[in-house]
Amino acid sequence: MLFNAIFMIVPVALIVLSVVVATKNFQRKGNAKRSLLLQLVSFGAVASLCLVFPIIAGAAGEGAPAIDASAKGMQYLGAGLSTGIACIGGGIAVGHGAPAAIGAAAEDPKNFGKAIIFVALGEGIALYGMLISILILNG
Length: 139
Prior knowledge:
The chain has helices at 2-29, 32-60, 64-107, 112-138. The protein is mainly alpha-helical. The two termini are 32 Å apart.
């Protein structure tokens, strides 16, 4: 029971600590790129710890139930990553396509139908990510 509590408390504490350290670093030196890099490295370290510790605990314990739980966790992680990364890509596409569509429609209103298709294509990327997530979870 204590072991599970440590698994829940340590990642949260490390993430909070990384935010505090990055904020203090930015306040002292004022370098936003270095603070962002520090934040990303610390997030990567916490993410790797969260992935490695349950696998080690499963290998030391019973075996089959922990491995099944680890596989289920990886399934959720893959589904979340596919949706999240697809939504980020869709947001970038819409963020660049929508102002161009508005500009084209402002110059010539007949171009609105053509321009809105490109915005919809950008949003389609996020739908494909969600579809992949559904396939991962149900597969």
